Amino acid sequence: MKILILNGPNLNMLGLREPEIYGDKTLDDVKGLCIEKAQELGHSIDFRQSNHEGELVDWIQAARGQFDGVVINAAAYTHTSVAIHDALKMLDIPIIEVHISDPKTREGFRHTSYIEPLASQVIAGKGVDGYLQALEILSEL
Ligand code: DQA
Q1: Cα Rg of the chain (Å, integer)
Q2: Choosing from 43, 99, 114, 131, which is the catalytic residue?
Q3: Is 100 in the pocket of ligand 1 (CB under 6 A)?
């Protein structure tokens, strides 16, 4: 499988950003772990991060026909972006939504996800292991 892993705003600051919530691994560490897991499962991954909603939309549009699955942690855009929802809706491949923390147990403004209705599965509150679980779930789908 060819899997696109997308990360939204502020996830480039992992390791520095609120480590009590997000842990001490950097996004590069997460990328390394995903590469290892993908190799183990026999998949190839394309791991990306952007702070810009439009760039994420462009990447999702370009994924049509290019990938067999998407893992997305849209970060704060999860709770706001109809544009990312609409772009994901055009994909006919499985989507796994990942969050390092569990947004549903945090502030009220994090309780709505515009991605959840399109996701085959949501993994939240498992730390960065959630990314690895998402790769395993995609293998099984
Ligand atoms: C997050 C949760 C979001 O609410 C938050 O805006 C993030 C990270 C997570 O991985 O736990 O930036 O998606």
Answers
A1: 14
A2: 99
A3: yes
